């Protein structure tokens, strides 16, 4: 009870201080009405009255960095919409827009498949070197773990995938893929560009990640030692290979990508949302995905006693359809689909020795997913037995083709939503429906709280309306600066608000 009284009085002090800080920040910041999101609507490349000199290779790094520092200064001790506006303002500077597009185009022209992203990785490292951002390389063969901030906890991560697909690009444009049969048809080139863009913004605002806790909570207690003193906050930027192949995330985790990281966020382009509109949802977002391959054999090789693998396989395929339609909750979407069946022989008058078939399964919860795995195996083995055959079911567990469902942590989702609404306005944030697609970001979400969100690239005038993995897939590049700003705002705001929580925790422990 005493502790409770103490806590509440501390919280009162903090509330007053936060309110005061907010008032001061609001007074010094640029005048802005609550519903004025005109910055979002304005053309991304319109000349700004604060435009800085175009990038000159002969100018020093220092000069370039100075030009990245925001002109309007809000200290962002307590997060406000002005902080988001400032981040977006940096992202939308004409030089930065030009640069982020050029990074994306360079990667688009040179698509590399899973674990072959050597040149993509080199492009990223070159940009990080220029920004003087430190990183660890390699992780998972071509992956990079970059770091902006104090190098001290708390650590928050933002992630982009780097790999392309074995698809021949059918879009004719200046920066079309130069690698025959390979294409960035899932927008991972844009993901990389937006994360590098976020790195640039965060570096320009690195001082915001270095605020001492004692300056946040300005009261006599701040003089004490312990969790209130010292510098806090690091953003980890993960450039991950092999999302499409399915084991990039797993390998990144195994090689230390999430060391000390307490929360992680990732963004994917969406052809269903208009350009630069951000969308997400709490809970299940993308399905867990797996594959299975079955071999059914006659039992003892004796033609008089052995079963008929064709009949057994046919019965098994029919019975598999009953798992979802008869056993699962119709409100809990699941899929079991057989996609191939082969006896390997074309004799019309001989019973084959073996039959193979296989397919895919999808579910939106770990429980349903694991239940599906169990029931698929049970049904196949039992049906084989009915027809005097034996069966083996392989779920390719060793080759990492099972993706868990992507379930957004509610707290992390709300953080994304709040950050996005501040950045692009409430009308440009959408709660989206879950999709049956899968994404290996779910491996991270199994380890730490995570949220996955979308950024729209749909522009009917441009023709960027095709779904990912289509050879006609293309994006509206005007989403890129907003995506970079979203990454940066989400990461910086996470640390900003976490810092206050740490302070409060510290006070509670006193
Ligand atoms: Zn894809
Ligand atoms: Zn993708």
UniProtKB/TrEMBL annotation:
Keywords of this entry: Hydrolase, Signal
InterPro entries: Amidohydrolase, Bact_exopeptidase_dim_dom, ILR1-like_Hyd, Peptidase_M20
KW Hydrolase (keyword) present: yes
Tagged with keyword Hydrolase: yes
Pfam entry (one): Peptidase_M20
Cleavable signal peptide: none
SUPFAM superfamilies in UniProt: Bacterial exopeptidase dimerisation domain, Zn-dependent exopeptidases
Stated family: Belongs to the peptidase M20 family.
Name of this chain's protein: IAA-amino acid hydrolase ILR1-like 6
Species whose genome carries this gene: Rehmannia glutinosa
Organism lineage string: Eukaryota, Viridiplantae, Streptophyta, Embryophyta, Tracheophyta
